[in-house]
Amino acid sequence: MCAAAIDPLRDFADAVGHAGNPVALLPAAFSIARMAYPELDPAPYVSQLSAWGAEVQGRIADVSYPMPRVRILREFIFKELGFTGNRDTYYDDRNSFLNDVIDRRKGIPISLSVVTLAIAEFAGMPVRGVGFPGHFLVRYMGDEDSYILFDPFTSGEILIEADCMTRLRAIYGPDAVFEPRMVEPVASRQIITRMLANLKGVYLQQKDYGNALAVVDRLMLIEPNRSVEHRDRGMLLLSLQRYQSAIASLRHYLDIETAAPDAAGIRRLIGDIQSRYEID
């Protein structure tokens, strides 16, 4: 399933557009996958998601109430199609590439959420992504302020506030406090940003600095005001022995964050690089 090779970074820039503008979720998600598969043609995958959505739409046509509609969606995706959370190799980068997630029927919370959101949208269901701390979720939007929260990573498990509190404290400790804003829906731009942040963490853990740098370049495109990415870009360039470019990125970070807590350390680092490698 390939198309003519394109520039993956330019492709991503085209997919996310200008900061502040809405982002189309599927084109941006497949553009992330083009980091690993530059010739990827998303069209067959989009057609498959659309067909699955049409199947769900047919099944819910005569169902009025939210909970039975959500049950139909969950059973179709996680029982019939067999999508599941990849606990065994959670930090495999394929869990972040949507083509791999669809082919392998497994992924991490956010990539499985993107699949769920796509199928739901094609089915005409009001399902939105939720940037819950430490674990992405989705919610079916009911009337007024009502909603049904569920977790694509755990086969669509439905969650209530007490479950959210338990999960929050398991991640952040017993003093963590649940706040309703934690389960508010987020825009596609935030979803893509979080997908990239996860992938960046995977590559940093693997010490794959080249791919981590490619992710940071995309984070800077989608969220230009994330000043920390300029610092991290500089550190990655340093690890790749691209010293002149590293200094430029670190200086840019200091220009943006003049009072950053790590500013003094960054200045010392720049001085050390200049001295060691005789760079102005």
Describe this structure in words.
This protein has 280 residues and is α+β, with helices and mostly antiparallel strands. The protein has two domains: 8-183, C8orf32 fold; 227-277, no CATH class. It has twelve helices and six strands. It has helices at 8-16, 25-33, 43-60, 66-80, 98-104, 109-122, 161-172, 188-205, 209-222, 228-239, 243-256, 263-277, and strands at residues 84-85, 106-107, 127-130, 137-141, 147-151, 157-159. Strands 3-4-5-6 form a four-stranded antiparallel β-sheet. Helix 5 links the parallel strand 1 and strand 2. Helix 1 packs parallel to helix 9 (209-222), helix 3 packs across helix 6 and helix 10 runs antiparallel to helix 11 (243-256). The longest helix has 18 residues, at 43-60. The model has no long low-confidence stretch (mean pLDDT 95).
Features:
single chain; globular; four-stranded antiparallel sheet; alpha+beta; 2 domains; 6 strands; C8orf32 fold; 12 helices; 8% strand; two-stranded parallel sheet; 280 residues
